[in-house]
């Protein structure tokens, strides 16, 4: 009996000893691996941080009858119920875990998070995820820029966390100027911008650093995973999409072309992108400063992602997405905060600044897509234009040809488009009567825009409709049929109905009609805002 028991004890002891030795050596091994080669899939060997009084900081749960979306446009209860250090599904491609990222660089990163009235639990999770999922020697600091939140303690209470520094704006500046302030405070070699409701995933920083250490003029973005705004469930996003925009300068996702996919070889490899989706990116502090940081004339929210992308591409750098780096973000449907002075024109004004500085002659396509932008006062662009000339940046045409060939000129079959004018009068559609008339030109009158001369079908189009002649004399807008009532040609500034050889003319009461073409008649001369082809100036059939 005694023997049996002591044998059992011995067996247990030796198993324990074996397990302990195995555990210690494997831990040492892991640490060694980190020191030498920085593999980024294992359990972190550094101590996790916690905010001692987390529950107190986050505060009480919302009342049962509270609208949980009202304050932050995401479900406050779901966010509050999660611990700051929850675990996340590893959404990277399985092989990302085996990539080795070279020796530990001596350079460090400053993480910059601007926030305005952020939910405390979301803000805390952002910071804790960075501290717990990043090797400490890579992080210089986490700079929280409090953009004048109502409660100063939202930020100040977090300054007890390791590496966290909090700066607070004297007045509400908007996210762009807040990030500039954060960048000016930063001491690290690299800057990483994050929103205040993010969670970085395992091994997120190393693959980004790997790219900027290879090319210091690169702007790199992680793949932005989705944190569900209702359930806070963490979901993978497609790692095969690049960022672009349309002529309104609205951001959009684009699939990688077949050629780009084949050239890439591996789904883990970084790929070039015309633009970054938003504000989550890493850049060398030096390159950011040489690029003039963000345009400080951009207000509150929007367009800075396009600005930094265009600047980086046109002034000697590039933009990349790195699929082995994953950061989650709570995407929401509305802005939960106010825009001082109203938000109606903020985005339009911000995009106008970007178009004016970086689009060159192509800005006319922006104005065509956003006619209301013309009348806005965008403020001085002096500083941005200086950066552009100092860095000897390339013209937008180069970007269109080499970086973003998917951004087509608006319908290549159109030889002219915009407003169709005669002096200060513009052709205007009348929805109810499906007629057309002339009226004083007005930039913000949408029914005067979107006219185009389509050389392929010889039609004058207004959106999806075509200028057509009914009963040989009435001018109307009808569905395009390519019939002879809709076929026009342009001779110099005259617009001629092909079937009859008559000219489009304005009458005394600004009505439109057809009449015999007369050389030099002012009432028969028409111009489009944008002419893409020189006009044939040999009038036929004109008396
Ligand atoms: C997207 C980007 C964001 C930025 C923005 C366009 C992602 C995931 N997010 O924003 O980074 O590029 O588009 O400008 O790509 N904030 C302030 N002061 C303000 C307003 C906002 O500090 O006056 C903070 C806010 O608390 C948040 C960050 O700025 O941390 C971005 O704002 P958002 O989350 O409302 O914008 P989102 O996600 O639509
Ligand atoms: Mn956001």
Automatic annotation (TrEMBL):
Keywords: Disulfide bond, Glycoprotein, Glycosyltransferase, Golgi apparatus, Lectin, Manganese, Membrane, Signal-anchor, Transferase, Transmembrane, Transmembrane helix. Residues 418-526 form the Ricin B lectin domain. It is an enzyme of class 2 (transferase). One of its GO terms (biological process) is protein O-linked glycosylation. Its cofactor is Mn(2+). GO terms for cellular component: Golgi membrane. Its EC number is 2.4.1.-. It comes from the Eukaryota. It is found in: Golgi apparatus membrane. Gene3D superfamilies: 2.80.10.50, Spore Coat Polysaccharide Biosynthesis Protein SpsA, Chain A. It is a single-pass type II membrane protein. Pathway: Protein modification; protein glycosylation. Residues 110-288 form the Glycosyltransferase 2-like domain. InterPro entries: GalNAc-T, Glyco_trans_2-like, Nucleotide-diphossugar_trans, Ricin_B-like_lectins, Ricin_B_lectin. GO terms for molecular function: carbohydrate binding; polypeptide N-acetylgalactosaminyltransferase activity. Belongs to the glycosyltransferase 2 family. GalNAc-T subfamily. PANTHER family: N-ACETYLGALACTOSAMINYLTRANSFERASE (PTHR11675), POLYPEPTIDE N-ACETYLGALACTOSAMINYLTRANSFERASE 13-RELATED (PTHR11675:SF128). This is Polypeptide N-acetylgalactosaminyltransferase. It comes from Zootermopsis nevadensis.
